[in-house]
Amino acid sequence: MSPTNLRDEVSAVTDDTFEREVLLRDHPVLVEFWARWCPPCRMMAPVLAEIAGERAGSLVVCTVNTDENPLVTRDYQVMSLPAVLLFRAGHPLRTIVGARAKAKLLSEVDEALRG
Q: Is 1 a domain residue?
């Protein structure tokens, strides 16, 4: 499954929708910055889909295509892909760079949310 096939589980966010879909959310939001040409990004797609399904109601999961959304990519200084940013109340809590197994990613997310 590629990031572009995750529409049912993981929503795509753009420069235009980032504020509404990420910063103004009541729940924490996990955002993956990815690109079509990035093999590790494709590895993260099923992991994110599983997390979105398991944490529905408590964690929003979405993606940003960096090639198509340069403004938000620049604003959050995303330099390497995949980059996963965790937001709460409109503020970034943690940046995780590189592909992760689901258990490792959830461990890092849960640690950041407790802190």
A: no
| Residue 62 falls in the annotated catalytic set | no
Q: What is the pLDDT of residues 14-66, one digit of tens each?
A: 999 999 999 999 999 999 999 999 999 999 999 999 999 999 999 999 999 99
Contacts 24+ apart (CB under 8 A), 72-81: 72/13, 72/14, 72/15, 72/18, 73/33, 76/33, 78/33, 81/33, 81/34, 81/35, 81/38, 81/40, 81/41
Q: Per the domain annotation, does 62 fall within a domain?
A: yes
Which residues span the domain enclosing 20? Answer: 6-110
Q: Is residue 11 part of a domain?
A: yes
Please tell me the total count of domains within the chain: 1
Catalytic residue among 38, 61, 72, 84: 38
- Note the pTM of the prediction, 2 decimals: 0.90
- Selecting among 6, 10, 30, 41, the annotated active-site residue is 41
Question: What's the CATH code of the domain at 69?
Answer: 3.40.30.10
Our answer to whether residue 38 is catalytic in this structure is yes
